[in-house]
Amino acid sequence: MAFDKDKIIDSLKEASISDLNDLVKAIEEEFDVSAAAPVAVAGAAAGGEAETKDEFDVELTEVGQEKVKVIKAVREITGLGLKDSKDLVDKAPSVVKEGVAQADADDMKAKLEEVGATVTLK
Hints:
single chain; CATH 3.30.1390.10; 3-stranded antiparallel beta sheet; 3 strands; 56% helix; elongated
């Protein structure tokens, strides 16, 4: 079987976000890899910044005792469906939102901490 990257790219262009999300999960499971950026690389990039930071990543560090409430808060913050929100919470520590303004990041952190989660802004 010949590998035709152009056909694959065309198929990906026509796929829905949900289909692409399922594809990423299937690839992660099949090849035992993660699509998440390595923490060491992100940490090295952040350490080199001399100016003040204006965009933050909201990371769910620990779920806490009220997992269902945390899932609901993640759904509200991200707009994800129930299954995707649950998967994100189950994989903690995980990034809930990337590249958000400080005020929005603080609001998200407050909502998650209100329901018992531990959150880190990076």
